[in-house]
Design goal:
alpha+beta
Length: 190
């Protein structure tokens, strides 16, 4: 199984009660999913968290496919009362391992390419480094690989499908749609 990294968007920021439920939920005990909680009194701090980040979960999940990994977290987040997944995306910042996974290559050939093709017009330079881990821009790597003739989608199909399904499920939440209408739209009627 592979480990898949993605960011799951939530319908709302976690409340302290939901964070407590999250911290004590067996489905999240392995630490593969993390959140940012707003401080109780944000006015006491010079920097407050980005409001967008408060509605996101950072996920590094083992599963057979990216779609399976996203579905697993989306299902598990519903164990926390009031929370549900409403979208998913990838960050632009990646390690070479993550970049290799996104473009369907193995790590070693991409690492070799990053060493052999450096320089102007070559493999992109790292964006940053933290604690011995080197980070690149996915957009720049994908652009370089495309210029070299590779077929690399900007966004993996699994991620596009999961994002669209989560958005649709969110829009349909609490909206009364006749089963015949759902079937006519090609959706299963529950």
């Amino acid at each position: 199984m592979s480990e898949w990294s993605f960011t799951l968007r939530l319908n709302q920021p976690l409340t302290p009660e939901q964070a407590n439920a999250f911290d004590h939920c067996d489905a999240f005990a392995d630490g593969s999913v993390s959140y940012t909680l707003a401080p109780d009194d944000p006015h006491q701090y010079t920097h407050s968290p980005d409001p967008t980040k408060l509605k996101e979960l950072s996920c590094d999940v083992e599963a057979p496919t990216l779609l399976d990994a996203i579905a697993q977290v989306a299902r598990n987040i519903r164990l926390i009362p009031g929370l549900r997944a409403v979208g998913v995306h990838h960050d632009d910042t990646v390690t070479l391992e993550e970049a290799a996974q996104r473009c369907g290559r193995s790590y070693q050939p991409l690492a070799q390419l990053s060493r052999d093709q450096r320089g102007p017009g070559g493999f992109p330079e790292p964006e940053s480094s933290r604690e011995g881990t080197v980070f690149y821009s996915w957009h720049k790597i994908a652009e370089f690989l495309r210029s070299a003739g590779d077929t690399v989608p900007e966004t993996p199909r699994d991620l596009v499908i999961a994002d669209q399904v989560l958005r649709l499920a969110h829009e349909l939440e609490g909206f009364d749609v006749a089963p015949g209408t759902l079937r006519a739209l090609g959706l299963p009627a529950a």
